[in-house]
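Bit of a strange request maybe. I'm writing a small parser for structure token strings and I need a real example to test against, not something I typed by hand. Could someone generate the tokens for this chain?
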Amino acid sequence: MPDYIEFIPKAGACTVTKNVLSGQGKVRWMVREPSKGPADNGWIIMSHLDTSEYLQDGSNWDIADFNSVCMIEPALIGIWDFPVGSDLQIVRDDKGIHIVDTPTGREIPQEEHFIPPQFRQQN
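Reply from user aminoacidic:
Good idea to test on real output. This should exercise your parser:
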């Protein structure tokens, strides 16, 4: 696997748990908060292993380039431009990977997913 792929130009950095970065946990929850600085895109990424206690310990968090986290879980590419306040989760089942709005349980249809400029069809 290449060291780095820029899926999204100038995607910025996100806050992510060490379980995601280490590969121990699969990406499960994604919440977008207001940016805390110019490089911060506001995304907070958590794994399926992360408990409330784990999340409360600041040493279990890191800052990572969003594109690097997309290399771990490509489904994140599709949520990049969702608005602040988004509360999403990845659901894996026998039909694949789905992005679901956590509060409503609504599956986000493919046509609402972000497509990086280099992969958009030209008309």
